[in-house]
Fold this protein.
Amino acid sequence: MSPEIKDTKTGEIPKEWEVLSLEEVTVDLIGGGTPSTSQPEYWDGDIPWMTSANLIDRIVIRGMRNITEKGLKNSATNVVPKGSLLISTRVGIGKVGIAEIDVAISQDLTGLVPDKDKADVEYLYWAILNKSSQLSGLSQGSTVKGLTREYVRNLKLPLPPLAEQKKIAEILSTLDQAIERVNEAIEKTQRLKKGLMQELLTKGIGHKEFKDTEIGKVPKEWEVVRLSNVFKLASGKSRPKEISDKQTDKMPIPVYGGNGVLGYTNKFMVDNETVVIGRVGEYCGSIHKTLKSSWITDNALYAAVIEKRQISLDFFTYYLVFINLNKFKKESGQPLMTQTIVYSISCPLPPLPEQQKIAEILSAVDERLELLRKRKERLERVKKGLMNDLLTGRKRVTLN
């Protein structure tokens, strides 16, 4: 062992770091409760109140509901002061956030008021978050799992000097903010796609005249046909025995099921791209377009074989997603999408060049979404790696 490293109950850490319990780095642990919902005078006041369900983002800026002073005084809830940590100790064990407002909490949460001379609240957030899986695994109780107050008090954390804590927290929080910005870009692009689908798949491109049809107004030049005139459905086969639910690069041919790619095989069935539709079960009505390579189908889906030559596969993939095919499913026992249901659905049929142009526009948005999702995945991998390195001292930060 390096002379600059020491062994502790939390593992090897730099020699100048300490291992302290949460009780040693906080000045108060605050429990919560819920005012009686049968008392209207306890609710809709000026005091933000929240449960573990609200604990989604790193920074807490609002409550789920508001309570009154009377509700606060006549229940077990307490107000956690701004600048404190909130940790879920009963439902959603291990979720953690930083309160940027004074907020009352339910019995699902515990508030931790940090000792600012010993611990930076942002660093504590990351250190506890790094133990979230451990906390979840150690929760107790058969009906509602929870962490005891004693366990929370005694939770041990590696603690660098305060200046190093702040630098570590700054690095991780900056990464987190970058991920949040990507999330916002993903949400914005998803809204754009939804709006474009609504516009393009019902009004087309540049049309001035429209006609009434059984599916609503569509451009005058468009036809309206049944899906039975667009494609025929073929049921899939049971997937090969060597396929597991986990994908592997060693077997290159994808096996498509109702929820997308189930795995890969070296057994060949089809050598063409098409649309696959979830036939039965949880993913009934789901829509996926196959890869441009050999593929086989699971028996939980249909493969849609295009019947007309003047059809853009991409256009009809988008249209099936747009109409939410799942809403047409038959509910008898487990959800079922029959061929009769699919064939009876009416759809627009623009001229092929317009189908292709609409599909190109939507595909460009999908490409943007895919790039954003991959960027988010990369950032999350970097964050996970840095959390493991910085919060254990395996990688040290440079202080200015």
